[in-house]
Fold:
Amino acid sequence: MSYRLITLLSGVPVGSDRGALGWCSVVLLEGRGHRILFDTGSYGDRAILIQRLGEQGLCLEDIDAVVISHFHFDHMVNIELLTEQELFLHSRELDYIKTRAFAETGDPFVPLTHAALYQDRLIPVEDDQILFPGLRIVHLPGHTPGTMGLYLEQEDILLTSDGVKNAADFLQKRPPPCFYSEAIALESYHRVCSLTNHILPGHDREFILNPDGQIEYLDQTRVNLDLQDKPRGSKRVIKLI
Ligand SMILES: [Zn+2]
Structure:
């Protein structure tokens, strides 16, 4: 028996000179008697996250556990809504927020209040740990010390979060923005390649890296940016992906 993978929110490879938009991938895994959320998105994702769960006939209470890839706001803030679930975070990331090392490294994306409120509720996990049958933790440090992915063993797909933010960076061996180590982030790319060529990145759509080095996207989701700088009825919509 295997897991059904449902991309509730597609990651978007977009930045701006106004700051991070933070549209990450949010994935629901359903199978073997479990419903597991991999990342939760941020405040701006909240309504659509609940709507997408509803389209699956689910509500937040139906989720059993949450895997938090790392403690950046765009991936974890909606744990606020998940009051009863087990919350898993890599032990290195838990240290990162407990010791406030993130402040020393100038990492602005860790929400201070959440770091304080949740540090005792978060359950630390380790590299290679089998979290649920067929689901293996894969430590992918670099972006932060405890960034981690989740490998679906039977399905042979790796949810990388910001271990691989997007296909273009991965293809060009360009590390993600790093608050820990670019060199180690590149080692994490090698780890990813050693496991699989089927990747669901942190801020991009699911893809396969073909033997000829070409990216093949498997998710046809389109995301539109609605710039509301025109009178109503003539708004400008930009297709992002
Ligand atoms: Zn991040």
User: Anything to note?
Assistant: Residues 70, 72, 109, 143, 162 surround zinc ion (CB under 6 Å).
